[in-house]
Amino acid sequence: MTIKHIHLQETDSTNRYLRDYRRMEGEDITFVWSESQTAGRGCGTNTWESEAGKNLTFSVLLHPLRVPAASQFIISMANALALREALLSYSSDIVIKWPNDIYWHDRKLAGTSRLAGPDAGARRRPRRGAC
Questions:
Q1: Nearest-angstrom CA–CA distance, 87 and 120
Q2: Sign of CA dihedral 10, 43, 112, 56
Q3: Residue (of 8, 27, 11, 47) closest to 125 by Cα position
């Protein structure tokens, strides 16, 4: 499995960056993270800015070959479960507010998003973001 890592000092949105990104042949996963975001997006019209060095702002572009678009929500569920599992090593009070928010003691720690867009072959490419 080939994973491409991209580090940016600043971007408007890591999801927007990946929307415009053209992957190289053989790239299975593209991971982009930024020191700061100036126009991050959440659900609906929610937006935010992140101060440099204060937040984890990243997106992951998956290139699944055998996951039909109708089944890609399973990837979102696995994403939320994996994030919760990683955070449980720091606290036992991590919960998921389905489908995409991670909470600790009734405080939102992260929101994960699932966005999909067509690639050159007209398949949908799922993108995952966390903030």
A1: 36
A2: positive
A3: 27
Long-range contacts of 97-105 (CB under 8 A, 24+ apart): 99/73, 100/43, 100/76
Q: Tell me the DSSP string of 28-75.
A: -EEEEEEEEESSEE-STT-EE---TTTS-EEEEEE--SS--GGGTHHH
> What pLDDT band is residue 114 in, cutting at 50, 70 and 90?
low
Which residue shows structure tokens 């991209």? 6
Q: Write out the H or E segment, with its range, that includes residue 79.
A: helix 73-87
| Percentage above 90 pLDDT, the chain | 26
Tokens encoding 105: 């003691």
Whole-angstrom distance, CA of residue 25 vs CA of residue 83: 28
Read off the amino acid at residue 115. L
* Contacting residues for 44 by C-beta, under 8 A, at least 6 apart: none
